[in-house]
């Protein structure tokens, strides 16, 4: 009996009760822990048909040598036990929410002159540290904003050692984001007060800080200290300006967390927006192996995330319906003593927040993947922008080139995984009509290309590969001219046009009735520009080659007694008209079909 058969039989013998199962490898190491409402049903699924599993689950199952299980009385108890065991053992294949940037601290230094900064680790240096915070972006941005608002030094100078009262302050002083401490323009007491206020701003006491500053401003005015009152007024305005930049998004639900989840290939990014008092105060990103999009995985993700948190929101927004997971709500209440609602937004402001979180997750994952493969990241962005169902691994692009209707040709280039695959390129000489008509030319080219697909679909050359996306050099007119051909021949492939501006630069992507702007998406803009330039280059190079060949051929055909057959033999022998011009009578006469008298005529024609 092989190992899979052994595991399958063991799973079939499990009780039909709630519990936790523990997968182990051949070294008895725990590699996965899961919960089940019915142990027998859930565990048996792993050792049934492997074709239904995701890549991650297949890898896990391949490494399972044996498993244990623990029976509990309810799915709620199973979830509690699962979370506890995962935190103890940190199994390789479980969802482990590790922030991609680590933890961040706010550091307060006080050697007489106070200073704040954001750092990634605590040192034994007598400084005071606040945190840790899971979002380094949030902390560093808040410290930067506070530094500007309270006009703290941006440089690395050490005070009071680096104070030069006769020195000139830097540009930051003149644009009013630094108080000019290096030039002695501020006292140590005023600097320290500014640092204390900046720290309160960063740590979230914004309301109390604003009230305190207003009181100080009024007191300064009453003392007729208008210079100080003006400085405080400027700080208040700066705080208000920063606050306006932040998203005040939840008028009804002031406290909620929004989970935006996006997957690319075998990776998933979870972006969590934290809304408190109607303001987005934090965002976190977690990069995981691709989620299966099952209730079990999403419940495990949420339980894992909240199991050690105490500040739970009033509402958690997720994209997938977990309305049957009442035990998750019991779990959240058990760890926080607070009732939390699950929400699955379809419209309204929460849906807008979900869209924002998913966009953040997609952008973050694209950046992570682009570190290894920029082309695939750009293709994923293109997929989302165009609303494609399939990842556009194979893209075919078409362009037409002619000169006043002569030498009318079409070019097809193919990009595979974002890179040009030149062995798949094809050229088409327009045969069905004469004259200049780009719409009819594209229709003919696509019709012939589809015909080649059906000929080679069962094997043959690359014409038998169906593209994931077709791009045309042109706008709505070109798309509409070709769309009918695709529909008529049952060639179900997304079709778009590549639109240029007045200076022949890529500007947008056209559908049958509208345009999609791509200038704001740098990776997509670069990819489409490269494809458009390449197909244009390829089509026009074929046009020039054909034009040159026809011009040369027509010059030979002008010679008395030299027809198409003898012209062909001459070109095969010498390779070009210039070589024919230089050839001697004897060399010309050696060509099949050319007599000595004809060789003399050719020689005299060119000389």
Which regions are unreliable across 5 or more consecutive residues at pLDDT < 50?
A: none
Oligomer: single chain
Number of strands: 19
What is the CATH class designation of the largest domain? Alpha Beta
- Which outline best applies? extended
Q: Terminal Cα separation, in Å?
A: 89 Å
- The total of helices stands at 20
What's the number of structural domains?
A: 5
CATH superfamily (homologous) name of the largest domain: UvrC, RNAse H endonuclease domain
List the helices and strands and how they pair.
Elements: H1 3-12, E1 19-24, E2 30-36, H2 39-46, H3 55-62, E3 66-71, H4 75-89, E4 104-110, E5 114-119, E6 128-133, H5 136-149, H6 171-174, H7 188-202, H8 206-222, H9 226-245, E7 256-264, E8 267-276, E9 279-289, H10 295-306, E10 315-317, H11 326-336, E11 341-343, H12 348-370, H13 374-386, E12 394-403, E13 406-416, E14 419-420, E15 426-429, H14 438-456, E16 469-473, H15 476-488, E17 495-500, E18 506-510, E19 515-517, H16 522-557, H17 564-574, H18 577-582, H19 585-589, H20 596-606
Parallel strand pairs: 7-10, 10-11, 12-16, 16-17
Antiparallel strand pairs: 1-2, 1-3, 4-5, 4-6, 7-8, 8-9, 12-13, 13-14, 13-15, 17-18, 18-19
Helix pairs in contact: 1-2, 4-11, 5-7, 8-9, 10-11, 12-13, 14-15
Please provide a written account of the structure.
This protein has 607 residues and is α+β, with helices and mostly antiparallel strands. The protein is extended, with a radius of gyration of 35 Å. Helix 1 packs antiparallel against helix 2 (39-46), helix 4 crosses helix 11 (326-336) and helix 12 packs antiparallel against helix 13. 45% of the residues lie in helices and 20% in strands. It has five domains: 3-89, GIY-YIG endonuclease; 104-245, no CATH class; 256-369, Nucleotidyltransferase, domain 5 (2-Layer Sandwich); 384-547, UvrC, RNAse H endonuclease domain (Nucleotidyltransferase, domain 5); 558-606, Orthogonal Bundle (DNA polymerase, domain 1), CATH 1.10.150. Strands 12, 13, 14, 15, 16, 17, 18 and 19 form an eight-stranded mixed β-sheet that branches. A five-stranded mixed β-sheet has the order 9-8-7-10-11. It has helices spanning 3-12, 39-46, 55-62, 75-89, 136-149, 171-174, 188-202, 206-222, 226-245, 295-306, 326-336, 348-370, 374-386, 438-456, 476-488, 522-557, 564-574, 577-582, 585-589, 596-606; strands at 19-24, 30-36, 66-71, 104-110, 114-119, 128-133, 256-264, 267-276, 279-289, 315-317, 341-343, 394-403, 406-416, 419-420, 426-429, 469-473, 495-500, 506-510, 515-517. The model has no long low-confidence stretch (mean pLDDT 82). The termini are far apart.
């Amino acid at each position: 009996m092989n190992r899979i058969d052994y595991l399958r039989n063991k799973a079939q013998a499990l009780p039909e009760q709630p519990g936790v199962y523990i997968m182990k490898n051949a070294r008895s190491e725990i590699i996965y822990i899961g919960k089940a409402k019915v142990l027998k049903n859930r565990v048996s699924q792993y050792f049934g048909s492997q074709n239904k599993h995701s890549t991650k689950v297949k890898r896990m199952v391949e490494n399972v040598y044996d498993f244990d299980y623990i029976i509990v009385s309810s799915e709620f108890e199973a979830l509690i036990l699962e979370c506890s065991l995962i935190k103890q053992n940190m199994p390789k294949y479980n969802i482990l929410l590790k922030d991609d940037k680590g933890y961040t601290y706010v550091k307060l230094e006080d050697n007489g002159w106070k200073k704040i900064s954001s750092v990634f680790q605590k040192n034994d240096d007598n400084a005071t540290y606040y945190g840790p915070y899971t979002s380094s972006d949030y902390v560093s941005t808040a410290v930067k904003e506070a530094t500007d608002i309270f006009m703290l030094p941006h440089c690395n100078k050490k005070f009071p050692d680096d104070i030069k009262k006769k020195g000139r302050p830097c540009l930051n002083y003149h644009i009013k984001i630094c108080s000019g401490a290096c030039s002695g323009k501020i006292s140590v007491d005023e600097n320290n007060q500014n640092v204390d206020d900046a720290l309160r701003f960063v740590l979230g006491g914004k309301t109390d800080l604003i009230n305190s500053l207003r009181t100080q401003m009024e007191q300064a005015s009453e003392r007729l200290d208008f210079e100080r009152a003006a400085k405080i007024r400027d700080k208040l305005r700066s705080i208000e300006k920063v606050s306006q930049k932040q998203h005040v998004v939840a008028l009804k639900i002031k406290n909620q967390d929004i989970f935006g989840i996006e997957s690319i290939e075998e990776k998933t990014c979870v972006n969590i927006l934290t809304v408190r008092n109607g303001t987005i105060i934090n965002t976190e990103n977690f990069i995981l192996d691709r989620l299966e999009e099952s209730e079990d995985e999403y419940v495990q993700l949420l339980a894992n995330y909240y199991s050690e948190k105490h500040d739970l929101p009033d509402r958690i927004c997720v994209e997938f319906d977990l309305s049957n997971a009442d035990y998750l709500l019991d779990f959240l209440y058990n760890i926080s003593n607070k009732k939390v609602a699950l929400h699955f937004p379809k419209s309204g402001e929460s849906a807008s927040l979900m869209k924002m979180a998913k966009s953040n997750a997609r952008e973050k994952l694209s950046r992570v993947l682009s570190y290894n493969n920029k082309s695939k990241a750009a293709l994923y962005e293109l997929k989302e922008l165009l609303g494609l169902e399939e990842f556009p691994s194979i893209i075919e692009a078409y362009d037409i080139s002619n000169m006043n209707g002569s030498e009318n040709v079409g070019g097809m280039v193919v990009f595979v995984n974002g890179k040009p695959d030149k062995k798949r390129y094809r050229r088409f000489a327009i045969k069905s009509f004469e004259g200049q008509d780009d719409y009819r030319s594209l229709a003919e080219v696509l019709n012939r290309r589809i015909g080649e697909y059906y000929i080679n679909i069962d094997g043959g050359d690359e014409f038998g590969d169906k593209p994931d996306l077709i791009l045309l050099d042109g706008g709505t007119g070109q798309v509409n001219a070709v769309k009918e051909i695709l529909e008529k021949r049952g060639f179900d492939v997304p079709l778009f046009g590549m639109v240029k501006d007045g200076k022949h630069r890529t500007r947008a992507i056209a559908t049958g009735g509208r345009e999609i702007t791509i200038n704001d998406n740098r990776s997509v803009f670069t990819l489409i520009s490269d494809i458009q330039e390449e197909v244009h280059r390829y089509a026009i190079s074929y046009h020039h080659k054909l034009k040159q060949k026809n011009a040369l051929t027509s010059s030979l055909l002008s010679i008395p007694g030299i027809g198409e057959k003898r012209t062909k033999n001459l070109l095969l022998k010498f390779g070009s008209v210039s070589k024919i011009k230089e050839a001697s009578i004897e060399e010309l006469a050696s060509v099949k079909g050319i007599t000595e008298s004809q060789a003399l005529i050719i020689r005299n024609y060119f000389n």
